[in-house]
Every structure is written in C-alpha cells, then in structure tokens.
Specification:
Strand order of the largest sheet: 2-1-3-12-4-13
Distance between the termini: 69 Å
Largest sheet: 6 strands, mixed
CATH architecture of the largest domain: 3-Layer(aba) Sandwich
Shape: globular
Helix content: 25-40%
Structural class: alpha/beta
CATH topology of the largest domain: D-Maltodextrin-Binding Protein, domain 2
Number of strands: 13
C-alpha cells in the first residue's frame, strides 16, 4: 500500500513539475482572442498581429459573418474583445444586460444605398422596394440615410433607433424589406435598392463612392470600436491592441486600401 502511495505521489509531483514548466515556458506572453467580421476588421487585426507579437501579445483572430455572435463571445468570456460594431449597436446590447465597454474608436464604414437597376436616386420609382438591415440600430441608421437622401422623413431626425413606424412622410410610397445585414448584398438582385453596411459591401465588391446612389457623411456617429467586457478596458494588453489599431501604419493602410472612402479612420 505504501509503495502505491509513493508511486502516486511521484506521478503527481512529476505532473506538477511538467505543468509548471509548461506554464513557465509561456510566461511573459499573453494571448488575446478577438471576435470580428472579415472586412476590414480581420484585415486590420492581421496587419498589426506581428507588431503585437513583438510586444509579447499573441492575437487569435476569430472571424464571423454575422452580428449576433461577437458580443455573446465577449460577455461569456470566450473572447477577450471584439471588433465589428459601432457604438449604438453596442449600446443596444448594454440595454439588454450585457456588460460591454468601448475600449477605443478606430474607423467609420460609411453606409450607402446601392442598386443594380437604377443609376440615380431620382430614377428610383414609386412603390420601389428597398432592402434594409433588420437589426434595431442598423435599421435606424438605414432609415436616417434614406431621410438624408430625401426619400423619406422621420418623426425624429435624432432617433438612432427609428423603425418603419417612425416614417411620417414617404412620397414615393417605398416598401421596406428588412433582412439580416449579411444577406443584403445577395438580395440586391431581388429588390430595387438596398442600404448595405460597409463591412458587407466591401467583400461583395461594392465601392461606396463609385457605386453608391447615396453615401453616409464622414461625420457619422457610427464609429467602429474595439469592445471588451467591463473591467477589461484598462488591461495593458487591450490598450496595446487599441494603440496598434490607432497607429499610423493602420491609417496609411486604410488610405491605400480604401482610397474612395469605403473606410475612414477616426484617429
């Protein structure tokens, strides 16, 4: 019996030494898991990945093509941060009980109205169907864009969460087709026009300045941010991530990659 106990203690000690050694081998390095959408967010993260690695921070970049995963990942602790959303969208989740914080603003992806059937706003006919995002904040953003374009009028021009029920003037009797933001480029063929978010318009090959019938202004309140769970915003590794994304390297890359304004840095 004593031999068995001694053998067990030897195994346990060996395991502890091995585990401790493995942990020691990784000491000084930090891993950050970042949930993001592909363009331009993942591209920006990959751009600064080596720079952060040189500081002892290893990025694990997890890409998603939808909006309802990234905040859940941060809230559940499955991701250290996410990079895909603007402030009004984050605030909607906060109102639902999520504990999210803006760690830093990076860029704006101007929203635009696109059409494969018409070349100008004036050509959009009465009764046309316009596809818009179906999530609350981006639906309001799309309706504000259509108001700025002169196609509709809302009861409150400052309401970032406007819905179809807030439309008080619709001279062309436009019909709205609300769908998941990720599907907007695909449904464009089936509608007269669509308001498409920049991070879905870009990989679909759309250029806001060239193809958009109407483009959101550069003074947009919809700044894309790095989001973390409350309490992590002052984490040195998170601050290093934000600093890297707010670097001249990223600014120059954006200017070169999106010369027509599909992406505009805010730092």
């Amino acid at each position: 019996m004593k031999k068995v106990l001694v053998f067990a203690l030897v195994l346990l000690t060996a395991f502890c030494v091995f585990a401790g050694g493995n942990k020691e081998a990784k000491s000084g390095r930090i891993t950050l898991v970042i949930a993001c959408t592909p363009e331009p967010h993942a591209s920006m993260l990959n751009l600064v990945k080596d720079d952060l690695a040189a500081q002892g921070i290893d990025l694990v970049i997890q890409e998603y093509n939808e909006y309802n995963v990234e905040n859940e990942a941060v809230e559940a602790g499955e991701a250290d941060a996410n990079f895909f959303q603007h402030i009004p969208y984050m605030n909607k989740y906060i109102s639902m009980g999520y504990h999210l914080v803006n760690a830093g603003g990076i860029h704006v992806e101007p929203l635009a109205l696109y059409s494969k059937k018409y070349k100008s706003l004036s050509a959009i006919p009465a009764g046309a169907t316009i596809a818009i995002p179906n999530d609350p904040t981006n639906e309001g953003r799309a309706l504000l864009l259509l108001q700025s374009a002169g196609l509709i009028k809302l009861a409150d021009s400052s309401n970032l969460e406007a819905t179809e029920l807030d439309v008080v003037s619709n001279p062309k009797n436009l019909k709205f087709h609300a769908v998941d933001a990720a599907t907007l480029p695909r449904v464009l063929e089936d509608v007269d026009a669509a308001v498409i978010n920049g991070n879905y318009a870009i990989p679909a090959g759309f250029n806001a300045a060239k193809d958009g019938l109407f483009v959101e202004g550069a003074d947009s309140p919809y700044v894309n941010i790095v989001t973390v769970k409350a309490g992590r915003e002052n984490d040195p590794a998170i601050k290093a991530l934000v600093s890297a994304l707010q670097s001249q390297k990223v600014k120059d890359w954006v200017a070169k990659t999106y010369p027509d304004g599909n992406v505009v840095t805010v730092f």
